[in-house]
Amino acid sequence: MNFSIGNYFRSTFSATRNWEPLGWVFAGMNLIFLVFAVGLAIFLLVESIPIVRLEGFEFWWGEDWWVGETYGALPMIWGSFIVTGLAVILVLPIALSGALFTSEYLSPPFRRRVKGVMELLAGVPGIIYGLLGVSLLTTGIKDAFNLLDGNTLFTAGCLLAIMILPTVLTLSEDALHSVPSEFREAAEGLGLTKLQTAWRVVLPQSLSGIAGAMLLGIGRAMGETIAVMLVIGSLDRVSGFNLFVSGQTIPSKLGREAAEALGSGEHWSALMGLGLTLFLMVAVLTIFGNIFKHWSNR
Amino acid sequence: MTAITIEKVVRVFIAGITFIIIGLLVSIFSIMFIKGFPAFHDDFLFAESKDFGRAGGVFYQSAGTLILMTTAVLLSLPVALGSVLFQTEYLASGKFKTLLTQLTYLLNATPTILFGLVGYLFFGVYLDTGVSWVTGSMILAVMILPTLQVSLREAVEALPQKYREAGMALGLSRSSQIRRVILPQCFYGIVTGVLLGLARAAGETAAIMFTATTFSGIQFPQSFSDPVPTLQTHILILAQEAAHPESIAQAWGSGLVLLGLVFILTLMAWLIRTRVVMESEL
């Protein structure tokens, strides 16, 4: 009928006139949440304008980062991709095997226990992984591969793989488990074994959920700061595909330099530019991850 | 015949991987225990740290972590509870609700270091709180907002429809419905959310390391503009002093305290949640 903003408002917020004061208080709280969520992105955008004005799009292509002279983000972006890529390759087969076994072979009480262990593992603070990494993993990798320095991209990738394992495992297990049991019964009724059912029926049905789990795991890996910062060696350079050299990721760079640049100047703006880049990458991963996950739930 | 052999091999293989994954938790905990326990001399938990963290205990560091995480949850809980109740009880538009949910997920996935950067600028510079425990608490409060929201929304949405219907049949207004039915029934869900929020705030380092904390030589904050020492940053600094074995030993000790704190909070959240699930199945 006659559309008006008033009508739209009334249909959006049910029975607006019946709101008591409490309703307005809650609406205010919601507004605070909204302001922080949107404000975060806007702040990053506004604060990185000066550096883009100064460096132009060279900011994302430049290979040199000398504070006070030139700011190029490529080493950090490259490092982030290499490290997360490595973590994904390492974690995928392990997490999928674990998820398949938990979902298809374990009885409900044991399944709940495995999920519980995953939740506890996911809660282990990053600094603890950092401590374990810096005192055990770096020396282990140094000795195993005969390196001069154990602080390498490979070390960071391994550590990240361990860190995102619980997230990826539990989310892909959810996807496998959400496949209706009729599918399994039908497949087994046709004479397929349990493994065949899992491989040919359950897995294809839950592919989008598993993809979602991977994307969300990658998003977590990309943003991890402390653990990576302690084991990556913090050297800004584009190292090609050589994994056994020191490097830098966006968050490790931010963690190393935020305290020096605090609050103002072009160095700060350059860091905010890095932050914006990181935020956009993680946002894209998260949004697609959630879309895939949502598809699988339907 | 071969199909059955493959079946068995694969099953043993993936079972083995699963056990290794579970073993990961066990080994992380035992390494922390073996390495961290020697640092627990007489009063590790109740003594001041001395000699730049190389000796003494972690009393003020633990206190700092506790101050930051509790203040963060106290600040975050009203906002989280208010916005969840707004979204579940008042908001009718499905699209707007979906948008808000997606925003929650996005905020949840945002790298924590970004909360530190933006939060420092917003609270520390514009609200002029500087590098202080207040800045840190506010940053952590925003960071754990999605954690709280997700568990609170789960609790509110898990409420059986019949409770609402009973309330409506008695002619309760929306606000009395919330006060008399929803909040009391969701009490344990709220406690779970609070515990998980505390655990997340306790484990966070990146967002507070340059906005709220200092390394040593400070005790309880005397004013709103003082930084605090925390377990997380204590470990961070000590872990990088590879030249001093006693620093590393202290780092393991502090790590064990922190891990213990986070585990206890998570396990408590678990126990309460299982209790809620059992009640709702009655």
How many alpha or pi helices of chain B?
10
Shape of chain B: globular
Low-confidence stretches of chain B: none
Distance between the termini of chain B: 47 Å
Strand order of the largest sheet of chain A: 1-2
Q: Report the structural category of chain A.
A: mainly alpha
Mean pLDDT of chain A: 88
Q: In what order do the strands lie side by side in the largest sheet of chain B?
A: 1-2
How many β-strand runs of chain B? 2
For the report, how would you describe the main beta sheet of chain B? 2 strands, antiparallel
**Number of DSSP strand runs of chain A:** 2
Keywords:
heterodimer; A: 298 residues; mainly alpha; MetI-like fold; two-stranded antiparallel sheet; 76% helix; B: 282 residues; 2 domains; 10 helices; 2 strands; 1% strand; globular
How does this structure look, described?
The complex is a heterodimer of chains A (298) and B (282). Chain A has a single domain, classed as MetI-like fold, CATH 1.10.3720. Chain A has 13 helices and two strands; from the N terminus they run H-H-H-E-E-H-H-H-H-H-H-H-H-H-H. Chain A has helices at 5-12, 21-55, 58-61, 74-104, 108-123, 126-144, 153-177, 181-189, 194-205, 207-223, 226-231, 250-261, 265-297; strands spanning 65-66, 70-71. The model of chain A has no long low-confidence stretch (mean pLDDT 88). Chain B has 282 residues and is an all-alpha fold. Chain B folds into two domains: 2-38; 44-281, MetI-like fold, CATH 1.10.3720. Chain B is built from ten helices and two strands, in the order H-E-E-H-H-H-H-H-H-H-H-H. In chain B, helix 2 crosses helix 5. The longest helix of chain B has 37 residues, at 245-281. The mean pLDDT of chain B is 88. Chains A and B meet through helix 2, helix 4, helix 5, helix 6 and helix 7 of A and helix 1, helix 2, helix 3, helix 4 and helix 5 of B.
